[in-house]
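WP5 quarterly update. Target: L-ascorbate oxidase homolog. Source organism: Prunus mume. Length: 544 aa.
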Amino acid sequence: MSLNFAGAAVSALLCLTALFSIVAAEDPYKFFEWNVTYGDIYPLGVRQKGILINGQFPGPDIHSVTNDNLIINVFNSLDEPFLISWNGIQQRRNSFEDGVYGTTCPIPPGRNFTYILQVKDQIGSFYYFPSLAFHKAAGGFGGIRILSRPRIPVPFPDPAGDYTVLIGDWYKSNHTSLRAHLDAGKKLPFPDGILINGRGPGGFSLNFEQGKTYRLRISNVGLQHSLNFRIQNHNLKLVEVEGTHTLQTTYSSLDVHVGQSYSVLVTADQPGQDYYIVASSRFTTPILTTTGTLHYTNSAGRVSGPPPGGPTIQVDWSLNQARSIRTNLTASGPRPNPQGSYHYGLINTTKTYVLENSAGQVNGKQRYGVNSVSFVPADTPLKLADYFKIGGVFRVGSISDRPTGGGLYLDTSVLGADYRTFVEFVFQNNEDIIQSWHLDGYSFFVVGLDGGQWTPNSRKEYNLRDAVSRCTIQVYPKSWTAIYVALDNVGMWNLRTEFWARQYLGQQLYLRVYTPSTSIRDEYPIPKNARLCGRAAGRRTRPL
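Structure tokens (predicted):
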């Protein structure tokens, strides 16, 4: 062997070693293949056309660990365009993958799209759902859990079991009928029932071994109503809310507003028998209720008697519970440093947005809006129009940052915001029903909730020390909720009601968090496999 060849071989070996070192240091990849189909389901005893993922209703859970890369290939076997969004997954620097129509082109029937997600610096309990065409009323949703990395301390022992519990109100009508009802400018009727993990009354069960403690990840994936969750004779110890470890407060029941996720610990510390699991509607007349069964493995008897009652229309009860949910400042989050090391209460806000929801008629049809604007989708996803600099699709500032007091009108509403600013949002609800708001791309600090009209003096009662950080928050009737947000994630982010008929009929907007920088440290370029539609059709993403 010549010296030159030997040197080249050694160099090649060193290069390969370096390459494998880089690969070994990269965060893990997990791959999923999903086929989305229609199928018959019978959750309330009548046949319905449901949306299944790999034949399952609800869809399969996603199990992941902080910083995992999730490669999810979704094949659309429906007869209409389809998208999945990932409630609570922040899509750091990558709103292209968010899976709502303002960011991502729909998957055509008979085609596929591969989502490339990273659960960067996140832990906790979330869910996914179909975001278009009122598909959420047919299923297509499932749980997401993000576990802490092995060396990051968790503020409670490993549970004996870890279960996803998806609760939500439900209609016997197919989603196409509900959608046609909304398209005709009508309000939806009252739901027909409540499901727990896709099952109606008496259909859901959990098995517990006496003396052991279990984790339940409860998400309200319904269309409208807040639900109260409880288990007969058992306490619920709250430990995590949408990615934040909380003070470990014990409750006899828990209000889970639409779109929200909670983790509780339940200890099987009662005599060996079966117990009711109950989910019932809040702030409604009549009250909807469904039950499941908690079965002890040494059970000596089935459930008996009436299910335990819970709160019904009491707002103060729910408000006081919401105020008691606080961050555990000494616990680690996705990183080893304590959650309390970020002192949000010492940061000055640079801007206040006041957003007021409203209902009304536009052109003789029912619509809903924010600051008098009822959102209508553009012909091109807003993020693609922004990336390719396509004019005429949307206008930043097309919605006011304060209520205008005017009547509802239609527009593609986009709020502008600057990257790396620290801002305040106030959600003002002057209607007589509860609201639930979600912001994609972020977690925010819930600094205040109260009745009446918000004023600058309301800041005197803000919690500036240990407010919970989450991504979905309720606003009680005739009340306000205030949040602080560090705008550290460039992109086009959907801010929407989780009351799905209102979202469908215009109660949403997009927050454009902007920087003139083109560095990948601030925002990733468009994915190579991105679908291009509308006025972006025919353009190029980037070289493979």
